Chitin-binding type-3 domain-containing protein
Amino acid sequence: MTNLWQPGTYYGPGSEVKYNGVNYRIIQPHSSQGDWTPDVTPALWGRMQGGDNDSHNNNNNNQNNNSQNYQQQQPQQQQHNNYGQSDYKPPQPSEQTGYGGKHPEQTVEVTHEEKKKNWFDLDDDRKKQIEIGGGLLAGAAAIGAGFFAYKHHEKNEEEKKAQAWGAQNWLAEAQSRAEAFKRNGPSTAATWVLTEGKHIPKDAILVGQEKSWNLYICRAFIDGGVQLGKASDAFKKGGVIGYGGDENHVSTYEILLGDMRGLVWVNAHGKLNPDSLGKRPVEGGRENDGTPLYVAKAPYKGAVHPGKASEKLNGAYIPYDGEEKRVEDYQVLCYA
């Protein structure tokens, strides 16, 4: 027996309700409100056809079709000729991963300027319009797929919305950067491009080797910021991001391509003073408070590892053996 829809109730993945004699199945998990009834919020609830049993079968078929479509859209291994003249192909947009453009259920337009804002900087009426109109669906899909769900269970509902907002905006920007690189080639000696899983583009900047695998520089959205880490085709998901003292495994990330004729590694110690480097450092990401993070590498346990440095961190931080390790003496990647 399907329960009647009620306001003030949290509906999670798989929820089904009845409202005005019609059955609905959850699209986007949320806490219900009196003016968010299933019949007026198609971005939150999908109307089910027939009885409960038929709707379960239809939903399972849709999930299977989405899974097959996603697998068909995965990027194949690509080979590069040389930097700036590559046949690099960005990962294809996917409804399951939630990146790469407007979600099929989205009915509200989100402006370019709004995408630059933090979720908490939007006014309450606009946030409600975006949420009801499906403007958070892509980010919710990304979070649900586990790409950026850093301690997601510990966050309140508004914090989860902020995470979904930030995740989808970063993914859209990353896809745009990847498409621009595909069309025009690099505009500087260092270029971030989007990749999936264990696909390492040929021109990725090699930092070092650990055991028998190569280590490259990567970054991904996590907990409201863009954090740095390492990538390798030996890792279970391809990317490993250091954050919060832990290693966080990600399958969707950006990897740094570059021409070392236009780049140089500069020695540094302790807290980074960018002005003391004598050259412009390559900005890799940002903390969730906006603090810039720079690309670093540091020796540890007989190997050289990619990591991050900033004016607030007391040394370089690298992901290693399930944790973040601090190294006082390190090098920062700069433009030559």
Notes: Residues 51-81 have pLDDT under 50 and may be disordered.
